[in-house]
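Example for tutorial group B:
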C-alpha cells in the first residue's frame, strides 16, 4: 500500500510516499481503506516542528479521515465489512471527563494520509448517510470543535465567529441549526456573499473595522454576543473580551495569531463571562454531532480537494490561510 511518512519535522520535503506491506488485522481492530482525509491547522504546526505535545518523527500524518471497512478483527461487534466510517480525533476518549492521558494521532497512532489504516474499532464512528467521504473527512476535528464551542447555545442567542477557517464555518452552520443569530467577521468583503449563504445575519470586515468589538456592540444593542467562537488567540482575545455579553461565554479553540493587544484583566473580570478552552470533544460528542448533522442535513464546506499524490499542495493551500472551509485530500 502507499503511505506518507514525515521523517523529519520542520522539513516538508521529507513528507514522501512510500510502499509498505498491508497490515494484518488483530482482535478488536479494523482495516479501513481510506477514501479521503482533511487537514487542520494542527497539521501545519506539526509539519513545521512547532507542536508542543511530543509528536514523533516518521509518523503518518493527519487525524481526520473517512473510508470503508475492508476487514474486521476477532471480537468486533460495532462494525462490519463495507461500513462507511470516520475517525474520532482522540482514539481512546470515548466519553465523560477529559482523561489525564489521551492517545493522539501522529503520536501513539499513525494517521490517515495512507491508502489503508489499521485501527481499533472503538476509535471510529459511522458516517451520516447523506455525506460523501470527502465531506465526512472534515468532521472529526474542526466540526466537533465547533459543535463543542456552541454547546448550550439556545434560540435567540447571538453567536460571533471569527474568520472563515474550518471551525468558524462549522460554527456558523451549527449556530444557525440551534436557532441563533450569527455575526461573522472576515478579512475580505469578497466573502460576504458566501457567509450570508451559510446563514450569517451580520458581517464585519475586520480589516476595514480594526476595532470590531465596537461593531459587535452596535449590532447587539450594546449588549455584546452571547457566545464567541475565539480562534485567533493573542491576536483577537482582547477584542473578544470587549465583545462578550455579561454572563456570556468565550469558547477558546485556537491561536492563529501569536501577537496582539494585552488582555485588560479588569474588563475580563467585569464581563462576568465564562472563558472555556475547547479540547475538540470525545467519541460520544462526535456521535451526537453526527446525529445533528444528519437531522439538519448539514453539508461541510470544502475549500479545495487535492489528489492523494498531490498532498503537499494541500498543505501549501492551508498554510496560505486564504481558505474558505476545509482542505481535503482525496484517495
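The residue assignment follows.
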Amino acid at each position: 500500500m502507499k503511505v506518507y511518512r514525515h521523517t523529519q519535522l520542520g522539513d516538508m520535503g521529507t513528507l514522501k510516499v512510500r510502499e509498505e506491506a498491508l497490515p494484518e488485522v488483530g482482535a478488536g481492530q479494523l482495516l479501513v481503506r481510506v477514501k479521503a482525509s482533511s487537514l487542520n491547522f494542527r497539521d501545519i504546526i506539526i509539519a513545521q516542528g512547532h507542536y508542543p505535545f511530543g509528536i514523533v518523527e516518521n509518523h503518518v500524518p493527519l487525524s481526520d479521515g473517512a473510508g470503508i471497512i475492508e476487514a474486521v478483527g476477532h471480537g468486533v461487534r460495532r462494525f462490519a465489512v463495507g461500513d462507511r466510517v470516520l475517525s474520532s480525533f482522540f482514539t481512546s476518549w470515548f466519553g465523560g471527563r477529559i482523561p489525564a492521558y489521551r492517545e493522539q494521532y501522529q503520536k501513539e497512532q499513525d494517521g490517515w494520509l495512507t491508502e489503508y489504516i489499521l485501527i481499533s474499532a472503538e476509535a471510529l464512528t459511522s458516517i451520516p448517510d447523506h455525506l460523501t467521504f470527502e465531506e465526512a473527512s472534515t468532521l472529526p476535528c474542526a466540526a466537533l470543535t465547533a459543535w463543542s464551542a456552541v454547546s448550550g447555545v439556545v434560540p435567540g442567542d447571538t453567536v460571533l465567529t471569527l474568520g472563515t477557517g474550518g471551525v468558524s464555518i462549522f460554527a456558523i452552520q451549527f449556530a444557525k441549526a440551534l436557532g441563533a443569530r450569527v455575526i461573522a467577521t472576515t478579512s475580505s468583503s469578497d466573502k460576504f456573499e458566501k457567509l450570508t449563504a451559510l446563514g450569517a445575519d451580520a458581517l464585519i470586515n475586520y480589516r476595514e473595522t480594526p476595532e470590531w468589538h465596537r461593531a459587535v456592540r452596535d449590532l447587539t444593542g450594546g449588549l455584546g454576543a452571547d457566545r464567541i467562537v475565539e480562534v485567533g488567540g493573542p491576536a483577537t482575545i482582547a477584542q473578544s473580551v470587549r465583545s462578550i455579553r455579561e454572563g456570556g461565554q468565550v469558547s477558546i479553540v485556537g491561536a492563529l495569531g501569536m501577537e496582539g493587544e494585552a488582555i485588560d484583566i479588569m474588563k475580563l473580570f467585569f464581563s462576568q463571562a465564562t472563558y472555556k478552552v475547547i479540547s475538540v470533544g470525545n467519541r460520544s460528542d462526535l456521535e451526537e454531532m453526527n446525529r445533528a448533522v444528519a437531522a439538519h442535513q448539514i453539508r461541510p464546506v470544502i475549500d479545495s480537494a487535492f489528489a492523494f499524490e498531490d498532498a503537499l499542495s494541500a498543505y501549501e493551500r492551508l498554510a496560505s490561510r486564504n481558505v474558505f472551509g476545509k482542505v481535503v485530500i482525496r484517495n
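The mean pLDDT is 93. Compare this with the pattern of hydrophobic and polar residues in the output above.
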